[in-house]
Protein: Cytochrome c4
Organism: Pseudoalteromonas neustonica
Amino acid sequence: MKKIALSLTILLGALSASNATAFDGDVNAGKEKSATCAACHGPDGNAPVNIYPKLAGQHADYIYKQLTELKLGMTSGGKEGRMDPVMSAMAMPLNDQDMKDLAAYFSSLNMSEGETPKDIVDVGAMLYKAGDAERGIPACAACHGPRGNGSSLAKFPKISFQHPEYIKSQLEKFRDGVRHNDLNGMMQDIAKKLTDKDIEVLSKYLGGLH
């Protein structure tokens, strides 16, 4: 919980900054460079295969962060950043401007809407918006917002309308320590307290969160 509190403090500091630096990626250049991305993430940034994330409408700062850390994961042998057998290899040839351009392009697109199963709505809303104090689980909405739109400044991703299967896999990776590029280990700490049922509920709930 101390890590979570510290992260929220950092978030509030970031949001209160009066002079945020504009993201300098080029949308048109990013579109030209995105051809190889389309195979997994779709030509419009909405991945047709649900194990891959939708990139359309995601915060440019967050996409850029993930690309830089995926590349670092490969160059460090998984000791730093984020290591993914496929994406780390794809990020290797990208330079800093390539990453900014791709991030700007995908963030300019519209993410396709999803659906939340009716039997998940109530229990999912409770866990997402209120957490579970008895188990030390904070509300997801505290960082990702009531509508799951996240925060560009704090680099918290938009998670609403994301493929449930992808969200499920990432929560499991955080829980197992396979993915560890989260701010101050915050997502790892939270995910370790989630049961398989919790992860299933949250994943399905977020798929259709408006």
Notes: Residues 147 and 160 are 7 Å apart (CA to CA). The two ends are 28 Å apart (CA to CA). The first helix runs from residue 2 to 15.
